[in-house]
Amino acid sequence: MRGLAEYAMTGRRQAVTVAILLGLIPLLGILSGAIVALVTMRKGVQEGFLVLLWALLPAGLQWVMGDSSPVLMLFAVLFLGALLRKTGSWPLLLVAVSVVGMMLQLSLLLQTDYINRLTELLDGMMAQGMTLQLPENGQMVQASAEDAVDLMLGFYGLYHSMLFVSAVIIGRYWQAMLYNPGGFRQEFQSLRIPPRLMLALLVLVIAGLAGIQPLADWVPLLCIVPLFNALAVIHAVVASRKLGSVVLILAYMVLLFMMPLIVAAGFIDSVVDFRRRLIREQDTR
Predict the structure, then answer these.
(1) Structure confidence at residue 132 (pLDDT)
(2) Which of 41, 58, 101, 213 would bridge with 23, disulfide CB 3.0–4.6 Å?
(3) What pTM was computed for the model?
(4) CA atoms within 13 A on the CB side of 139
């Protein structure tokens, strides 16, 4: 990855070439967005936008084929990269990416053709024998195509938000690797959300869990900020205690099965400040 980032940063032509080639490979499309984010954060919005224009060629082709995510990602990472370049604030970036996700979730109200095509696709797949079961009243029941679409679209904004922030993280990691070794690690481990902001998010999450719309649809998006706050705590603790990468991998595996617990830890850290307590504990030894 270092060689790829180094080559992309040697000039505009090289960055454009890498962004286009990566964009042509669906599984590596996120790296095309990471290149745009890297160029934007290092060289500015204008240079990043020029790379984006060329990266739109493969992304636009995928949109024609029915996947608009690559195009959305390119514009989102340009905005987020510019925001991080100007402010250097990860809390602000996480709030921004959450708001973008909310806007995308609301955009589904205008995407009736997309929802109809998705429903027709799932109808066809179910007609060929595919089944989907969802929990209802404590039992698993077979779901209809409409139920499956509702479930998928419930995470539409969250999926895109995580895609956007992941591309920016990769770009930021590359930037630190090339120009400020160890800088990203320190930057991420020191990420901590201001208590007032976290309190406001907690109130919105509780209101969403109580069924108040549209907050009920936005609960996963409102949890992005505390989630990354908790991840920063985990990385800081692992690094401080020198626990090694194995423990970090195990922590991410736990994250997959205990997401609410991790999010709750992110909220609690805004009050308790686990990292400060850890430093104080080490100083007293």
Answers:
(1) 67
(2) 58
(3) 0.90
(4) 3
